């Protein structure tokens, strides 16, 4: 069965998988959603014997139906290779009664690698399939991790350029260093005076700018997006939930068919939406625990049915979740309306105009599989320290938000369902916050001293990504105001 992708804002706008990946965003700010999610008709016992790459093929081939077996296998093999520091790609660790799905074993040590290591291959394959002659310009807004993962994925990929905007004062020092040291003639990194939402809005505006699109086309260029609004990001993220489940079956923690819960530290709502889509494919997930930091717009939404971004933007120790507009939530809202693009558009227009919208009681009822929770900065730090002290396992700040919310959930509900916690970054990426949480005695150490101390405490080898930036020269120093983003893009592209 062919899966067709439809815009959340216009039911007449449809695309094949490869066209949707190429476009990134639909017209008018809409997002592409699959019109159906085919069943994963492979027994879990069979999946339990497969490698990550084989599971990836089973899941992705059902969603990206216009890719040939050869094309998809090529993309999967090119992405999930020894860029990852373990053959398991996404190992599952049992710690303190939960299963931590470590999604940070790729080249930039955060979960964005899971999708961004394959997106360049999906995109260049899509361009070929659709006889595109233009070069693809990847335009990306990042709260820290997407940027580096996208840069690493696209660096020196023929027929592509990549421009990354990040909030100059809104990412960790290591995140910034990772980006500004990026090699590759086709890579451009720009810090903006503004926050992540400003960066994301600026990027969205450029995607919707018809004038700019014309000028680009005349110069044989066209935009695409590596942000999690691209379905080429979402589909690869469905894979690891199926993989995690199959490992639990393999080690007899559960029997095929048993329900699990998932806990996802959430920002743009991409990761948790991928889990939701995996359920639609047949993965038995009972509850989706959506964990927020102090920017708890999603927690409030699940509580009240009102999405309201009119609030103070808080810089936390989990910067990749410092987001007030969770773009991918639109895909869920669209589904809650019964796939009614017009209704969805009304909500999104209200969000753009008033910064908020309220869903109907009927829509809210359909959210019963979701549990929204949040963790304060203090609770997050305490969780890191407590799990280190009890189990010797050191997690990053984002994962700790999830772990803290999971503890609250269990206390509140008593639910003992086996649970997978999406572990989204290596503690080495947020070393200072992690070490501060464990003991303030380390506060006076330099960033790289902290790396060595973390290594001693955890016994986990220092990732190559960290070794690499210790000595790397800074290659990007562009900074601009949020109002100048378009001008900077035109300058970079020589338009
Ligand atoms: C991006 C990111 C998140 C949030 O994921 P979404 O898909 O945007 O919800 C959480 N943790 C880390 C480390 C991230 O990089």
Relative helix content: 40-55%
Look at the structure and give the mean pLDDT. Answer: 95
CATH architecture verdict of the domain at 92-109 and 232-462: 3-Layer(aba) Sandwich
The gyration radius over C-alpha positions equals 21 Å
Give the overall form.
globular
Give the count of helical stretches.
22
| Total beta-strand segments | 16
CATH class of the domain at 92-109 and 232-462: Alpha Beta
End-to-end span in angstroms?
42 Å
Sequence stretches where pLDDT stays below 50 over 5 or more residues: none
In percent, how much strand structure appears in the residues?
15-25%
Major sheet details: 6 strands, mixed
Sheet/helix structural class? alpha/beta
Outline the structure in words.
The protein has 495 residues and is α/β, with parallel strands linked by helices. It has a domain at 92-109 and 232-462: Rossmann fold, CATH 3.40.50. It is built from 22 helices and 16 strands. Helix 12 (270-280) links the parallel strand 10 and strand 11 (285-292). The chain is globular, with a radius of gyration of 21 Å. Bound molecules: pyridoxal-5'-phosphate. The site of pyridoxal-5'-phosphate has 17 residues, from helix 12. The site of pyridoxal-5'-phosphate (PLP) has 17 residues, from helix 12.
């Amino acid at each position: 069965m062919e899966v067709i992708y439809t815009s959340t804002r216009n039911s007449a706008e449809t695309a094949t998988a490869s066209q949707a990946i190429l476009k990134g965003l639909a017209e008018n700010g809409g997002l592409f959603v699959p019109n159906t999610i085919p069943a994963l008709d492979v027994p879990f016992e069979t999946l339990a014997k497969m490698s990550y790459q084989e599971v990836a093929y089973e899941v992705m081939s059902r969603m990206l139906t216009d890719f040939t077996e050869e094309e998809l296998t090529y993309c999967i093999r090119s992405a999930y290779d020894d860029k990852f520091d373990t053959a398991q790609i996404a190992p599952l660790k049992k710690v303190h009664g939960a299963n931590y799905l470590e999604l940070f074993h790729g080249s930039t040590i955060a979960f964005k690698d899971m999708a961004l290591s394959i997106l360049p291959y999906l995109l260049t394959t899509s361009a070929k399939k659709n006889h595109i002659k233009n070069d693809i310009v990847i335009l990306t807004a990042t709260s820290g991790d997407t940027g580096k993962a996208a840069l690493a994925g696209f660096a020196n990929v023929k027929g592509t350029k990549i421009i990354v905007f990040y909030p100059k004062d809104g990412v960790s020092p290591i995140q910034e260093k990772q980006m500004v040291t990026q090699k590759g003639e086709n890579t451009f990194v720009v810090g903006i005076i503004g926050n992540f939402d400003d960066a994301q809005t600026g990027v969205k505006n450029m995607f919707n700018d018809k004038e700019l699109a014309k000028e680009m086309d005349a110069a044989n260029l066209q935009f695409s997006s590596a942000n999690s609004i691209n379905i080429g990001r979402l589909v690869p993220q469905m894979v690891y939930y199926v993989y995690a489940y199959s490992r639990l079956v393999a080690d007899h923690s559960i029997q095929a068919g048993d329900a699990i819960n998932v806990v996802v530290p959430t920002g743009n709502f991409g990761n948790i939406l991928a889990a939701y889509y995996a359920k639609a494919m047949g993965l038995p997930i009972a509850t989706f625990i959506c964990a927020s930091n102090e920017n708890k717009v999603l927690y409030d939404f699940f509580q009240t049915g009102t999405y309201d971004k009119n609030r103070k933007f808080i810089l936390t120790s989990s910067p990749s979740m410092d987001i007030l507009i969770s773009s991918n939530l639109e895909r869920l809202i669209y589904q809650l309306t019964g796939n009614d693009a017009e209704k969805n558009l009304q909500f999104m227009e209200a969000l753009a105009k008033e910064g908020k919208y309220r869903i109907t009681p009927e829509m809210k009822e359909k959210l019963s599989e979701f549990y929204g929770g949040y963790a304060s900065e203090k609770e997050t730090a305490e969780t890191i320290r407590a799990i280190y002290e009890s189990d010797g396992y050191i997690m990053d700040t984002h994962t700790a938000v999830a772990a803290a919310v999971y503890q609250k959930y269990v206390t509140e509900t008593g639910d003992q369902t086996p649970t997978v916690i999406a572990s989204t970054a290596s503690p080495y990426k947020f070393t200072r916050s992690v070490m501060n949480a464990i003991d303030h005695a380390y506060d006076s150490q330099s960033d790289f001293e902290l790396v060595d101390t973390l290594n001693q405490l955890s016994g986990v080898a220092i990732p190559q990504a960290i070794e690499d930036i210790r000595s790397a020269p800074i290659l990007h120093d562009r900074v601009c105001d949020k109002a100048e983003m378009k001008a900077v893009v035109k300058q970079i592209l020589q338009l």
